[in-house]
Each structure stands twice: as structure tokens, then as C-alpha cells.
Amino acid sequence: MSITSETMQKLELVTKINLSDAEREKTQEYFELHTKQFDMLDGIDTEGVEPLITPSTLVNVMREDIAVKTSSAEILTENAPERHNGYFVVPRILD
């Protein structure tokens, strides 16, 4: 696949960027390099190779979602050095 100047103009239009002639030429060379690498990958014979969905064989282990009784705000704040209306009171750090 070749990246033409028309393709570059379409990319500039779609991405809403304006490139100078030098930037356009450099970017076009960059895209050409990468498309050549993809073309090389297309040429690799993968016949008989099983597709790899994930590189890891680990499976998520999750616990059952069971509702449990939670503690009240009073119990959670009872050991706080200072509290007010069920909230922790902390020193002010911003003015």
C-alpha cells in the first residue's frame, strides 16, 4: 500500500491539522515505513497456526456477590479523635 499525497490531504482534512510541506513529506515517509512493515506481516504464512486470543491462560477468580451487613457511621467513627455529625473532623489544609 502506498501513501499518496491525496491520502495525506484526506488525513489532514479528517484530523483537522495543517501541515507544512516539510511536515507533510516527513509524515508521509513515516506512514510509508509503517505500511511497509504491515505489508511484511501480511506476507507471513500463518496457515495452520492457531489464533491467539490472549497471551495469558489465567482466569479471573471472583467471589460471589453476597450482601453483608455493613457497619453504621457511628461505629466507624467511634475511634476517631474528633467527629461531628457522623463525619471525621480533620485539620484544614486549604484556605
Report on this structure.
The structure is a single chain. The protein is mainly alpha-helical and 95 residues long. Helices cover 40% and strands 4% of the residues. The protein has 3 helices and 2 strands. It has helices at 5-15, 21-42, 73-77, and strands spanning 83-84, 87-88. It has a two-stranded antiparallel sheet. β1 and β2 form a beta hairpin. The protein is elongated. The mean pLDDT is 87.
What would the keywords be for this entry?
mainly alpha; elongated; two-stranded antiparallel ribbon; 95 residues; 2 strands
> How many E strands?
2
Strand residue percentage? under 5%
Separation, N- and C-terminal Cα atoms: 61 Å
Radius of gyration equals 30 Å
Strand order of the largest sheet: 1-2
Low-pLDDT segments: none
Task: Categorize the overall geometry.
Answer: elongated
Instruction: Let me know the average pLDDT.
Output: 87
Amount of helix? 40-55%
Query: Helix and strand succession?
Result: HHHEE
Structural class: mainly alpha
Main β sheet profile: 2 strands, antiparallel
What is the oligomer described by this structure?
Answer: single chain
Work out the helix count. Answer: 3
Give a quick precis of the structure.
This protein has 95 residues and is mainly alpha-helical.
Please describe the topology of this protein.
Blueprint: H1 5-15, H2 21-42, H3 73-77, E1 83-84, E2 87-88
Antiparallel strand pairs: 1-2
